[in-house]
Amino acid sequence: MFSSNNCATKWTAQIVPVCLCLCSITVHPNLLSWKKFNGKKKDHKKRHASAFRVVWFFFIMAEHLSRSELDYPFKLLEYFNGFRVSKVIFSACEQGVFDLLLQSQKSLSAAEVAQELGTSVDGMERLLDVLVGVEVLEVELTDGTAYYNNTDVANLYLAKNSPKSLYNMIIYQSQTIYPLWNNLGDAVREGRNQNEKTFGLSSEDIFSAIYRSEDEMLKFMGLMNSSWVIDGPDIATAFDLSRFKSIVDVGGCSGALAREMAKVYPASTLTVLDLLKVTQMAQKHFCQSDDTIRFQAGDFFNEDLPTADLYILARIIHDWKEENSLMLLKKIHTACNSGGGVLVVEAMLFENHRGPIMAQLFSLNMLVQTEGKEHPPSHYTHMLTTAGFTNVQERRRLLLCAVKLVW
Ligand SMILES: C[S@@+](CC[C@H](N)C(=O)[O-])C[C@H]1O[C@@H](n2cnc3c(N)ncnc32)[C@H](O)[C@@H]1O
């Protein structure tokens, strides 16, 4: 939804001139044979008439698409429909469309997909067509029947068992985040999370709400795990961390980021510290046969932290009120070996309030679900120096940002 920046400008500046150029080539008989362009030979008169229709069409398009957002609100309309696109992808994932198309090894018609997944043919055809429209599926027409196939992107990121699958992220967005965001208006009005209104749970203890059942805990851990599959390598290499021989990932959840770190820094020991029930779940569902990371149960607010050279705080500070985050940073400063540091990984806001849009959306998400928020780098620097750290360095990596402090 957010990639097609200023569609009108793009069309006028780049695509329209190319189209007009192509049209003038087709009008000029010596430059391109009509047969090549149209598939069958036509006489000169018809050929020029058709060419003029093409030119006329592109003039209309150019006129239409070059209007500014004030004349026609392309972007706004796209945004209004954003939730529909999300829902289409959520629904297709939940119904197993991408898995079926991956497994079938051939294109399938809407009727075949509907039959396999137990849906209506009409409903499935419309769903599949939108997925073609948003370019996650491909379609071919054979004898009037549409046959659908996954794009490479769908195979890689949307099918459940792909090594880079974002399936768990989608399920969590669909089943937990989406209902919470139904109460966004109340969250903004009240300035607090909506766990109580959405799920009937106390809004005070955020992780009791997030881990309200084993199933929910598994879904949340799946979500956390998914993001490191795509962002982990970038974060692990944002700084050269090789001099830190003992690393503790504080609130490390499924261990996905620690695993990425262990690949880049095989000479360092990687420990994932998290609540007992989380470490148990991680070992049961997320451990890999070649794991070199270890898990340690502990409560980072109420128990001592293990000593280490480097502590990772990935998506932790954004969960909590400022005083809690500061308490945790001070504890880390006390437990840290001499010369050690902390790596803070968060979706950093720009200082000027102008983005990035995903970090701004995450910050609203923190409002509806937690007691924290996203911050710009200066705020993290302030917190870290208040906790006693010096020598703050910052690297921006995609959406997530790493700030390293050496003590
Ligand atoms: C938003 S998640 C981030 C997980 C992980 N760092 C990541 O980026 O994928 C917050 C993590 O903090 C853990 N956590 C929350 N409260 C905790 C506590 N008091 N002690 C230890 N871990 C805690 C949660 O279980 C969860 O794994």
UniProtKB/TrEMBL annotation:
Keywords: Melatonin biosynthesis, Methyltransferase, S-adenosyl-L-methionine, Transferase. Pathway: Aromatic compound metabolism; melatonin biosynthesis; melatonin from serotonin: step 1/2. The keyword Ribosomal protein does not apply. InterPro entries: COMT-like, COMT_C, COMT_dimerisation, SAM-dependent_MTases_sf, WH-like_DNA-bd_sf, WH_DNA-bd_sf. PROSITE patterns: SAM_OMT_II. Residues 181-389 form the O-methyltransferase C-terminal domain. The active site is at residue 318. Catalyzes the transfer of a methyl group onto N-acetylserotonin, producing melatonin (N-acetyl-5-methoxytryptamine). This is Acetylserotonin O-methyltransferase. It comes from Tachysurus vachellii (Darkbarbel catfish).
